[in-house]
Structures are given as structure tokens and as C-alpha cells.
Amino acid sequence: MSDWDGRRWHDMGGQDAGPVPMDGHDFALWEKRVDALMVLCGQKGLFTVDGLRRALEDMGEDAFEKYSYYERWIAAVNQNLIEAGAYSLEELAARMDEVARRGPTYGEAQRDG
Amino acid sequence: MPHDHHDHFHHEGMSPSGHPYRADDDAPLSYWQRMEIAVRELLVEKGNLTPAEIAAQIEAMDARSPANGAAVVARAWSDAAFKARLLEDASEASREMGFDIGPLHLIAVENTQDTHNLIVCTLCSCYPRNLLGLPPDWYKTRAYRSRAVREPRSVLREFGLDLPDHVTLRVHDSTADMRYIVLPARPAGTDGMTEAELAALVTRDSMIGTGLPRQP
């Protein structure tokens, strides 16, 4: 018998936690782009919000603690797009390598940047 | 500290909206940023998206701010028939004012003298983004998500809102398809104010339930 209460890690309602951290930040361009990709891919039927949620929840609690919100989102967007056949894992890997060679910062790593 | 120095010190490193700048663009390119660039380029090359669509989507999101929600609240405060429609179907009533609500089912919950409403998304970050813009960071934290449904009065006190015991507190847990917005109670002493004047009293937090509208 397991003493698991049936909740997955993301189902946080009612748990103990510390004070609410009030510090905020302005969204960076790359974060806004992730948000835009999510919305547009959904509108075009490439995946659904449920698909996005499934990928985010399957990442587990470790990812929640370790990565920022939009880091988890781009990972979930990417996973859904690969599953939808939008591009292959090989194409993604090759492109990420190419991007790394363009320059050391986000601005310089843009194709036209 | 001399006053002129104090002013300078206070604003240094802050964005126009009063937040600290995040060191992204100058920091070394991260793995996840590389993934975003790669995904975006592949989608464009495969004909799924155009750069113009992406830019337009970002522009539309940037244009959404709590001012949109404030306009809806001010209309509800000024027009009883609109308020009735808003409480009946907040998506439709917001669309009536020209706001793009998308396919979301939006529900407005009304604060009164003896009822206060608070919204949360315990599972993640669902938020009435079409009317308020993107959620503040604290809305997405473990602390807010966990505690808002269990000890909401104590959470509200952290936001500086000490709710009297006789006020009933209702907490609404959002989902991806069903989102809430709080219709705050119209402050006293606002008789005769125009919709625009009223909208200026409506804060973001008053529409989440973690705050109250400004007093005139």
C-alpha cells in the first residue's frame, strides 16, 4: 500500500508554504516570445492548452524549483511541437547548435542580430 | 543622506514601471533562450508562423494591462444594466466593450459590504490575462498558490489587507478554461465621478482580490 494522497506535485492548494514573495520583474523579450509562440501555436491547432499542461506537469517538481516559468514553458511548447511533427528532434538539435555559434548573448544569437 | 542623492539612488537600476531590470539580454545566452530561438525559426521556416504574427501577438499582449479591467469595472460601477450583464457573462460583457477575450470563460465575482472575493490558480498560473495582462510573479509562486485557499486572510494581511471578521471571504480557484476577475465594491464618496475618473481608482490587485480600489 502506498501512502500517496493522490495528488501530483503541481496540485499545491492547501499545502504549507512561507510568505508570498512580492518581488516582480519585467518580462524579457525572449519570455514574451515564448508566450506568443504558445498562444499562436494553440490558435493554429498545433497543440492544445491541455498538451501544454501535460508536459509542464510531467516535468515534475524538480523543474518547478530549478527553472523559471518561461524556461519550463518553452520546454513544454517544444515537446508538444515535436510530438505534433512540426519538426524533428534532430532539426531542433542542429538549430540550437547553430544558434550557439552565432554569438554569446541573446541579441547576438538572432539570425539577423 | 542628502535628498538629491536619495532620489538618484532610489531609481537607479529600475525600469520605467518601477521593477528591477532582469539581467537577461546581457547575460550569456542560456540553453532555454537557444531553444526559443530555434523553435521560433523552425516554425517560421516550416510555414507555421510568420515573424509578423509573432510580433503582432507580443504587441497585443503588451497592450493588455490592468487598465482594460479597470475600464470594465468602472463601466459596471456606472451602468447597472452593464453590471448585470457582466455578472451574468463576463466574457460577453467584456467583448461588448471591445476587449478580445478569446475562447475563455470569464466569471466576474462581486465584492460587497459583507463579501470579499479572491482569485488564485492553485494548479499553475491561470489568470484573466486578456483583461489584466500577464500575471504578477507572486501570483505564480508556490506560497500564493498553496496558501490562498487555506489561510487566505493571512495571505491578504501580507498584501496589507486586513479583512474584518464579519466579511465572508470567497476564494476562487481558476482553471485554464475558466477564469475569474473580481468586481471590487465602488468606494464611497465617488458619486458623480466619470467612468474615466472611476477607472483610475481601480488597481490590478483590487481585481485579483489582494487589494481594494484607491479611495477618491
**Distance N terminus to C terminus of chain B?**
34 Å
* Gross CATH architecture of the largest domain in chain B: Alpha-Beta Complex
DSSP E strands of chain A, number: 0
The ordered string of helix (H) and strand (E) elements of chain A is HHHH
Main structural class of chain A: mainly alpha
Greatest chain-chain contact = A-B, 66 and 61 residues
Mean pLDDT of chain B comes to 90
**CATH fold-level topology of the domain at 29-102 in chain A:** Cyclin A, domain 1
Quaternary class: heterodimer
Radius of gyration of chain A: 17 Å
- Give the overall pLDDT of chain A as a whole number: 92
Strand order of the largest sheet of chain B: 1-4
Amount of helix of chain B: 40-55%
Measured distance between first and last alpha carbons of chain A = 57 Å
Query: Percent of residues of chain B in beta strands?
Result: 5-15%
Number of separate domains of chain B: 2
**Biggest beta sheet summary of chain A:** none
Write up what this structure looks like.
The complex is a heterodimer of chains A (113) and B (216). By secondary structure, chain A is mainly alpha-helical. Chain A has a domain at 29-102: Nitrile hydratase, beta subunit (Cyclin A, domain 1, Orthogonal Bundle), CATH 1.10.472.20. In chain A, 55% of the residues lie in helices and 0% in strands. Chain A has helices spanning 29-43, 49-66, 69-83, 89-102. With 216 residues, chain B is an alpha/beta fold. In chain B, strands 1-4 form a two-stranded parallel sheet.
